[in-house]
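lol ok so funny story. i was supposed to be doing the assay writeup but got distracted and ended up predicting the structure for this chain instead. priorities right. anyway since i did it might as well share w the group, maybe its usefull for someone
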Amino acid sequence: MNMKQDKKQLRNRIQMICIMVVWGSLTLLCWFFPKKELSESERRKLSQFPKVTRASIINGSYMENFEEAAKDQFPMRESFRRIRAVTDIYGFQKKDVHGIYQTDGQLAELLYPLRETSVEHAGEKSQDIYDTWLADTDVKVYLAVIPDKGYYAEETSDYLNFDYEKMNRILQEEFPEGEWIPLADTLTMEDYYATDSHWRQEKLEETADRLLEVMGKESLQGLEKKLALEDFYGVYAGQSALPVNGEPIYYLTNDVLEQCQVYHVENEKTLGIYDTEKLTGRDPYEFYLSGSTAIAVIENPSCTTGQELVVFRDSFGSSIIPLLLQSYSRVTVIDTRYVSPELIGDYVTFENQDVLFLYSTILLNESETMR
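and the output, tada:
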């Protein structure tokens, strides 16, 4: 009996020693393994190991920060993330990984539930802009919402439905001045990137035509589709860590778009409609209009009407705005996530323009980022 107990104790000790050796080895590797500042797949900054101070050890913040850094700086972290994601989805039959789920060959984000106060906040912010800068002017104001992919997955998905109709109703009630332009029926699930939240520019001609038709303007003609990048892995690919294939990024162009110049107020740079340098950056979708910037002014020398369009937008607007240029000599693009509405008057004089508020449901449900 004693011999059995001794063997059991010896086995337990060996197991404990093995665990301690593995844990200690991995801890040392975390210390000496090359530190990374960014996670390219997740598109975020990684936590760094804290400095050892007496105060941080006494108040416990050192260990708390060390644990967070160890998770981010763990050796072969991406491989372990991939193994865990595959195990969760295909082994344990979980429906999502970090809020990302698969439906109809697409990765989509679980937005449920509808945050009504967030939608109200977005409407109030739009109303404030109207009251401050647009009221008592002769501008024409329009409002449109870009649905996320979940809108088209409602019937085939097992997830709780997001009440898109209620979202639209709340926004219109909070901001009644904008003439409503419905866009959902111009899109399908296939019009979005399979691994990203954004829509494909080459699929947006019908959507752009809807906006232009309501605003009484002509469509962009003679567009040619060209390849910008062969293998694009969107934000959902990195966040979920699931094994997925890359997909191409295409862009539409013609003589009109190739002549346009974009002045970015934030960095005082003048570039073209499409920014090829962004294709090798952290988010290749920023190829369109150089991504989300505070204020950008697009000059279209091919149009001599003098008409101007002002678009309040989020990142979805980057790829569709070039398709709205045909009848406008100038398009001013404003993202109120990066500029205070109080400063808009320093850059735009509102007089006889078309003004389009174009928001995605993703922004509307998380509108705290709007200033």
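The chain has twelve helices and 14 strands. The mean pLDDT is 87.
back to the writeup now i swear
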